[in-house]
Amino acid sequence: MPEVSNDKPERKPKRPKLPRTAIPEQPAKVRATNFEEVSLGYDEQMALTEASRCLQCKRPKCVLGCPVGIDIPAFIKLIEEGDPAAAIAKLKETTSFPAVCGRVCPQEEQCEKLCILGRKQEPVAIGRLERYAADWEAANGPSGKPEIAASKGKHVGVVGSGPAGVTCAGELAKMGYDVTIYEALHKPGGVLVYGIPEFRLPKDIVQRECDYVESLGVEIKLDHVIGRTMTVDQMAENGHDAIFLANGAGLPAFMNIPGENLNGVYSANEFLTRSNLMKAYRFPEYDTPIKVGKKVAVIGGGNVAMDAARTALRLGAEVHLIYRRSREEMPARNEEIHHAEEEGIIFDLLTNPTQILGDQEGWVEEIEVVDMELGEPDASGRRRPVPREGSERRIPVDVVIVSVGTKANPLLTKSTSGLELTGRGNIVADEHTLLTSKEGVFAGGDIVTGAATVILAMGAGKLAARSIDRYLQGQPLLTPEEEEAIQAASDKAAETAAAK
Amino acid sequence: MYKILDKVDYSDDVYMQVIEAPAVAAAAQPGQFIVLRIHEEGERIPLTIADFDRDKGTITIVVQAIGKSTRHLQKLGKGDSLANFIGPLGIPSEIENYGTVVCAGGGVGVAPVYPIARALKEAGNKVISIVAARNEKLLLWQDKMGEISDELIVTTDDGSCGRHCLVTEPLQELCETGGIDLIYAIGPGIMMKFCCKTTEPFGVKTIVSLNSIMVDGTGMCGACRVSVGGETKFVCVDGPEFDGHQVDFDLLMSRQRQYLSQEKESLDLYVECGGDQRCLK
Ligand SMILES: Cc1cc2nc3c(=O)[nH]c(=O)nc-3n(C[C@H](O)[C@H](O)[C@H](O)COP(=O)(O)OP(=O)(O)OC[C@H]3O[C@@H](n4cnc5c(N)ncnc54)[C@H](O)[C@@H]3O)c2cc1C
Ligand code: FES
């Protein structure tokens, strides 16, 4: 236990005035040339200071903003009391991967958005404190293993080792189920290992979380592509009493503009997979090559586009981010946009690509773009960008990275009988139980919701574990009280709608 | 780890390995491929399945050593292991009784043709096989193909064995004679391109198996995309087999050359290091 409680800052008088504690980062110029983590994390003093800003609200709003309902004031209080071990234990009651969530959750849209302090000043840095507690544990050894219930003699198969699959597997293992995860790739972690770059989420953290789940007794079978190596139906025949499908939303979308198949045009998924999963940024020490280019155009404005742009920058390119709306409409997290700007990514906003042009050898040479103006709001409420006629111009580039979203990969769903899908190919699962149209088969995470967030995927994993437990014990998936609560909520919604 | 149970060198560059991979073998069907990785720093390389034995739990691959990874793989033999071996991937061949089928394999392309031809034969087809290579040394599996074919034609570009001609010559003759219901042509891009050019005027459906660059092999990255009938397709999940008359072979071949300079750099370094991965660090 660290000796901290003595030099704790005076609480009462300082509390309202303390500004949000800044987090140390690698300087932008330095980090733009390496793959080390951008943000260095709080030290003990910073964490204590920041924790002391929390008002410990009686009815904390922040918890309502957390998709998995972490008891935020409680873990912050434990940090403030100088007991990070207890803080991490508190966190782990609700979240399986605090080290991951502390780094990649969009807190500004969730818990921190609702923090009362945020009305007058900046909200408590909940994410940074979560990360602090998790990193403390990593540095000081695990704070003890959770209790594992006696074996229930039932076997659950989980497809996919992303946050949804791994969370579900961990929860079920603790309840006493035998769990096997089937993962198509050669490393577990899903998007956390193939998509999100090292400089935002070091891969040894992901590995540590997967090792932890294995230490609970979960078996992770890599190199198993469900739908090919084995089908879901075969999993059921081969002794899996229940199945959880958490295979993500990993099918890259393209724009269908001329020139998209030229050499040097990547999907963000390919570019990031080469760099992260295959470690192409360390070619030729690692065998997988990547084309870096002198000048790279990244198309898109989401987190994935930021990750691709910042990766290309670190590989030595001048990077233009081409986005058809304005900065305000960018779906990426503010922090990521800010970091990208600091590092020197050039933002070509209100700009849309119309075609990619190549040289004689089939390599990208230029990208043609058109200026956009914001017109009337569309279905999403954002103003629809419309092209300004005659504003076409060409930018010389040698690599283009297309980051315009992902869709459901049909490989698994197509090979599974009796599985109801949405029009877009996502699996239909009950919102409250995650049960699919197929007996004993549950689904959650990006494959159900479409590309979303790590924390939502984790939440789905937890929910699925609860449903699978009830299913395997022959209990109704929803207790009568839960049914009532759902009914009450929907009645209320109907009332509100009628009142309007 | 996946054990190498057997290895045979066919020439300086071409070799065969039998890999222990029971889960892959249990599901393998003609026309599918695998992805393997030799070691922790390795790249993921796709290879078409040349044969499989469900009882023994093995998959056979036939490889032409070109770049660093395939050179490295060539050095491994019985008793060595591979870090990863993933499959079977891709959509299997559609095997049914079509009538008379021509199965043409060029170079190492003969290996993936073999299980398809065998399955077609078992399904009751009359199978006419063409085994083609640049020269006699590079000819592959004549005997194996002979065993499962009603008729076997051998061609070499230099006339060192069989007929002195390109694979397209007997193909053209067979089309002219008529009575061919389906053609399979598998080999280098250029060979498949000209096979398709030959058969197109006769309107005989010609299926090719595309060997594009891949990363995951599961539809997640799009590295393998090709243009078929003007539409973008992912070879790893939509193929690897396509109607050859619809394939843009020039695009395929151009995309296959994307990493030539890096491949050369990697191979040169590898040779310089005497094949020791550690010295690359
Ligand atoms: C580049 C990038 C950056 C992101 N940044 C953030 C961020 O900062 N914050 C945030 O909250 N979210 C972020 N997201 C989104 C977040 O990562 C996903 O919402 C989340 O990972 C979804 O989890 P999942 O478990 O549903 O699926 P995934 O993480 O996609 O995992 C699915 C797993 O299933 C495997 N699989 C697929 N098909 C099969 C099959 N047939 N058989 C066996 N295995 C299969 C896949 O290989 C994969 O490992 C980002 C996404 C990307 C791509
Ligand atoms: S190899 Fe990645 S999608 Fe085909």
How would you describe this protein?
The complex is a heterodimer of chains A (500) and B (281). Chain A has 20 helices and 16 strands. Chain A is α/β, with parallel strands linked by helices. Chain A has a 5-stranded parallel β-sheet with strand order 3-2-1-4-16. In chain A, α10 links the parallel β1 and β2. Chain A is globular, with a radius of gyration of 24 Å. Chain A starts with 27 loop residues before the first helix and ends with a helix. The N terminus of chain A is likely disordered. In chain B, α6 runs antiparallel to α8. The mean pLDDT of chain B is 93. The relative contact order of chain B is 0.13. In chain B, the strands form 4 sheets. Chain B has a 7-stranded mixed β-sheet, with helices on both faces. Chain B is α/β, with parallel strands linked by helices and 281 residues long. Classes of the chains: A alpha/beta (500), B alpha/beta (281). Chains A and B meet through β5 and α14 of A and α1, β8, β15, α8 and α9 of B. The complex binds flavin-adenine dinucleotide and FE2/S2 (inorganic) cluster. FE2/S2 (inorganic) cluster binds next to loops of chain B. Flavin-adenine dinucleotide binds next to α10, α15, α17 and α19 of chain A.
Question: How is this structure best summarized?
Answer:
Chain A is of the alpha/beta class and 500 residues long. Chain A has 20 helices and 16 strands. The termini of chain A are far apart.
Low-confidence stretches of chain B: none
Judged by helices, strands and strand pairing, the structural class of chain A is: alpha/beta
DSSP helix fraction of chain A: 25-40%
Q: What characteristic shape of chain A results from the CA principal axes?
A: globular
Per DSSP E runs of 2 or more residues, the count of β-strands of chain B stands at: 17
Topology, pairings included?
The complex is a heterodimer of chains A (500) and B (281).
Chain A: H1 28-31, H2 44-52, H3 61-65, H4 72-80, H5 84-92, H6 98-104, H7 111-114, H8 117-120, H9 126-140, E1 155-159, H10 163-174, E2 178-182, H11 191-194, H12 203-215, E3 219-221, H13 232-237, E4 242-245, E5 251-252, E6 265-267, H14 268-277, E7 295-299, H15 303-314, E8 318-322, H16 334-343, E9 346-348, E10 351-358, E11 364-377, E12 383-387, E13 393-396, E14 399-402, E15 406-407, H17 410-414, E16 441-443, H18 446-449, H19 454-472, H20 480-499
Parallel strand pairs in A: 1-2, 1-4, 2-3, 4-16, 6-14, 7-8, 7-14, 8-9
Antiparallel strand pairs in A: 5-15, 10-11, 11-12, 11-13
Chain B: E1 2-9, E2 14-20, H1 22-27, E3 33-37, E4 45-48, E5 51-53, E6 58-64, H2 68-75, E7 81-82, E8 84-89, E9 100-106, H3 110-122, E10 126-133, H4 142-148, E11 151-156, E12 163-164, H5 168-177, E13 182-186, H6 189-199, E14 206-209, E15 225-228, E16 231-234, H7 235-238, E17 241-243, H8 249-256, H9 260-272
Parallel strand pairs in B: 9-10, 9-13, 10-11, 11-12, 13-14
Antiparallel strand pairs in B: 1-2, 1-7, 2-6, 3-4, 3-8, 5-6, 14-17, 15-16
Bound molecules: flavin-adenine dinucleotide and FE2/S2 (inorganic) cluster.
Flavin-adenine dinucleotide (FAD) is lined by residues 104-106, 159-165, 182-185, 190-191, 195-196, 224-227, 246-248, 250, 272, 303-304, 307, 409, 411-412, 445-446, 451-455, 457 of chain A.
